[in-house]
Design brief:
- This protein is of the alpha/beta class.
- The chain is built from 19 helices and 29 strands.
- It has five domains: 86 residues, Zinc finger, CHC2-typedomain (DNA Primase, Chain A, Alpha-Beta Complex); 45 residues, no CATH class; 116 residues, Dna Topoisomerase Vi A Subunit, Chain: A, domain 2; 213 residues, P-loop containing nucleotide triphosphate hydrolases (Rossmann fold, 3-Layer(aba) Sandwich); 67 residues, Arc Repressor Mutant, subunit A (Orthogonal Bundle).
- The protein starts with a helix and ends in a 6-residue tail after the last strand.
Length: 654
């Protein structure tokens, strides 16, 4: 077996080599890295490594210095031939004597156009590989292995002069686009390489930048990393994935498909959506995937993780909730009350809250309207970020969306409205997916998100826009008009989850009155319906109170389903009516009489009223007092009523 030292150095990843032995290994810039020296008891990183050629030196003067082979020899206590063999094996190199041919050469130049190093493509690669690459540079009249300098972008001089740029993976693809008259570039070591700050600076201020990734997971991930790094530093930024490609194919393969050419590529780029920031790229070493380390159900059950709520049973913590309702129904009033309860830690509609900072971003309401509502509800604990502020709240799909990550950790962020919080089309699932991805990143950083959104025309329980809105959110709340009952002047409101939630939630029946502080919970609607049924029974003859006839009568008068009526008849038996059996097991219902007064189904009060009545008392006196209550809407009673026997109107018992 013939293994050559220089050939190994051509293909050795110096960064990865040292990192595998020195966990603290970290780049410091200018082609240098440093880590804890393994050759003495080092507590402050002192081993300096030159990344261009792998030479190392201990700054603590322990005497350690040399190249990668000397490092391996001293660390493993082996001789040079063994070090050569083992390093080659770790790189998958078993023979360096394969006959190879340089099939392409790519020059990498500095900003002034001076050649720094060349990259050669060799075919075939060793050990069954299709290809290999190696770097060379000049030292005087001698060709030396390696770059000899820090890596730079391909076609850097052209890139600097152009207002536009296309980023691809590989020099061959960049050269194709250059033939088409496009300024194209790439880095010199593929999708696994780090993206440096110097690369970003070369693109700053450009009007348009397009990234064309290879059709595989590493390509897409790397494109996202580059796009995130360039986001906000260039004018237009797009990541364009070409359709019709097989796994790992690229633009060279795309060009082989009939009908594909420069004009079609430019049209695809023109129609592509702008890039939306997906989070801060993190420079992490690749990790091996070990399925055996995935947790079992037994392990999951031991985790001390539980569902938490900002409003118990209504607004889950660290989740994205969509609150939707028709325009003008009161979403802003409701969300302002929710926000104040959470900011102050006070109960909301009888539900417990967890106190946390609240930031209300208002893109939509005129400032005078916001001021009026805040005053009316006496909002004190919430912080408001209105479009009149400097800076205004940024749209979620613009370069300044990172502002939201500067809010205190754990805050509730309310977006009024979601449609105004982004610049794209709410019916475009791709655009919505990008916006929701930004919100998910905020969620994973500990924020709770509440999105106010409108409903579709003709359906007050269905939100507007792409299905991706609800697919990617965690929880849904809908504020809608509930069914108006016979004899009522106005309908009430229903706050519920009509379609989707990952949580078990409350359903509330509400009414709205600014004199009572906005929305408030209605009394039990089942109780009111049972009393309505009781009133109907009282008007009917005995024959009409036979179950089959009674159900038909109630369906007609109360507009309830037969199934619902039968359930209510069972619920009210013993409290509102009794049941007797006649021939052939027919059921007859008999209302329990509680006097002539039956309290209204919807009352503004949320607590029971206890009234004192003097003794002795007759039926007429009771009726007069009840009529006073109706006329004054439970106002002050006539003077002279003593403290003897109590009357609970809500229970209907004298």
């Amino acid at each position: 077996m013939n293994i050559d030292k220089d050939e190994i150095l051509q293909f050795l990843d110096i960064r990865a080599f040292y990192k595998s032995f020195i966990p603290s290994f970290k780049e410091t810039g200018k082609g240098q890295a440093i880590g804890l020296c393994p050759f003495h008891d080092d507590h402050s990183p002192s081993l300096s490594v030159r990344l261009t050629d792998g030479l190392y030196n201990c700054l603590a003067n322990c005497g350690a210095k040399g190249d990668v082979f000397k490092f391996y020899q001293d660390l493993k206590k082996v001789d040079f031939p063994t070090a050569l063999q083992e390093i080659a094996a770790s790189q998958g190199i078993t023979d360096t004597s394969a006959k190879q041919k340089v099939v392409a050469t790519f020059e990498y130049k500095d900003a002034a156009g001076k050649t720094l190093y060349i990259k050669e493509r060799l075919e075939p690669g060793r050990n069954g590989r299709n290809k290999e690459f190696r770097f060379k540079h000049r030292e005087g009249n001698k060709s030396v292995s390696g770059r000899g300098s820090e890596p730079v972008l391909y076609n850097l001089p052209e890139l600097i002069k152009s207002k536009y740029a296309v980023i691809v993976e590989g020099e061959g693809k960049a050269d194709l686009l250059r033939k088409w008259g496009l300024a194209a570039t790439c880095i010199d070591s593929g999708a696994g390489s780090p993206w440096k700050d110097e690369y970003t600076k070369a693109f700053e201020g450009k009007e348009k930048v397009v990234i064309l990734p290879d059709n595989d997971s590493p390509g897409r991930s790397y494109a996202a990393k580059i796009a995130n790094a360039l986001y906000g530093k260039v004018g237009s930024l797009k990541v364009v994935e070409l359709l019709g490609l097989q796994e790992a194919e690229d633009i060279l393969d795309w060009l082989k498909i009939g009908g594909n050419d420069k004009a079609k590529l430019l049209q695809i780029i023109k129609e592509a959506s702008e890039w939306i920031l997906t989070g801060e790229p993190e420079a992490k070493e690749p990790e091996e995937f070990d399925p055996s380390k995935l947790p079992t159900g037994t392990h999951i059950q031991t985790l001390e993780v539980k569902i938490e709520w900002l409003i118990k049973g209504l607004l889950p913590k660290k989740a994205i909730t969509v609150l939707h309702g028709r325009g003008g129904i009161g979403k802003t009033w409701l969300s302002l009350s929710m926000a104040e309860s959470i900011a102050t830690g006070k109960p909301f509609l009888g539900l417990t809250t967890e106190q946390t900072p609240v930031y209300y971003t208002d893109y939509e309401n005129p400032l005078p309207v916001l001021v009026e509502r805040v005053k009316t509800l006496n909002i004190q604990g919430v912080r408001f970020w209105h479009i009149s502020n400097t800076p205004p709240p940024p749209a979620l799909d613009t370069e300044k969306n990172y502002y939201y990550g500067k809010l205190p950790e754990g805050s509730l962020i309310v977006f009024d409205t979601f449609r105004s919080a982004h610049t794209g089309d709410e019916n475009d699932s791709k655009n919505i997916s990008g916006v929701l991805t930004v919100l998910k990143l905020l969620r994973e950083k500990g924020y709770t998100i509440l999105l106010l959104h409108h409903t579709a025309k003709g359906n007050d329980s269905r939100y507007k826009g792409s299905t991706a809105i609800l697919d990617l959110a965690d929880h849904e709340l809908n504020l809608c008009d509930s069914e108006k009952k016979e004899g009522e002047d106005e309908s009430y409101y229903r706050l519920h989850t009509p379609q989707k939630s990952r949580y078990q939630t409350e359903e509330l029946t509400l009414d709205f009155d600014l004199d009572q502080g906005g929305f408030f919970v209605m009394p039990d609607q089942t109780e009111g319906t049972l009393k309505q049924i009781q009133e109907v029974m009282a008007r009917l003859s005995e024959d009409q109170r036979k179950k089959t006839a009674l159900v038909d009568q109630l369906k007609s008068e109360l507009n309830l389903s037969q199934k619902k009526i039968r359930k209510l008849l069972d619920t009210g038996t013993g409290k509102f009516w009794t049941v007797t059996k006649a021939e052939r097991n027919a059921s007859f219902y008999h209302p329990i009489q509680f006097g002539s007064f039956s309290p209204p189904y919807r009352e503004r009060q949320t607590e029971k009223l206890n009234l004192s009545i003097p003794e002795p008392v007759d039926k007429l006196a009771i009726d007069n007092h009840q009529q006073n209550l109706i006329n004054t809407e439970f106002g002050n009673l006539a003077e002279g009523i003593g403290q003897t026997e109590k009357l609970d109107l809500y229970e209907g018992v004298i």
